[in-house]
Specification:
Elements: H1 6-9, H2 14-40, H3 52-69
C-alpha cells in the first residue's frame, strides 16, 4: 500500500507526480459533473470534449504516458 520508491520507479519528481495526479483528478471531476447534470437533465448534452469517446482517448494517452516513463 505504501511504496516509498514509487517516484523513483516511475522516474518522476514529487512535483511532476503531483501535477500528473492532480490533472487526472480534476479532469475526471469535471467529466463527472457533466455526466451528473446529464443524468438529471437528459436533454442537456455532454460537450463532445467530455463525452465517453474523448474520455477513453484521454485514458489511452495517460496509459501510454505512464508506460513510457517506466522504461
Amino acid at each position: 500500500m505504501i511504496d516509498f520508491n514509487h517516484l523513483n520507479k516511475n522516474k518522476e519528481t514529487y512535483f511532476s507526480h503531483f501535477k500528473f495526479a492532480v490533472s487526472v483528478s480534476l479532469n475526471l471531476f469535471i467529466r463527472s459533473i457533466f455526466f451528473l447534470i446529464h443524468g438529471f437533465v437528459p436533454f442537456v448534452q455532454i460537450p463532445k470534449i467530455f463525452n465517453i469517446d474523448y474520455t477513453l482517448n484521454l485514458f489511452e494517452n495517460l496509459k501510454k504516458y505512464t508506460d513510457e516513463r517506466k522504461q
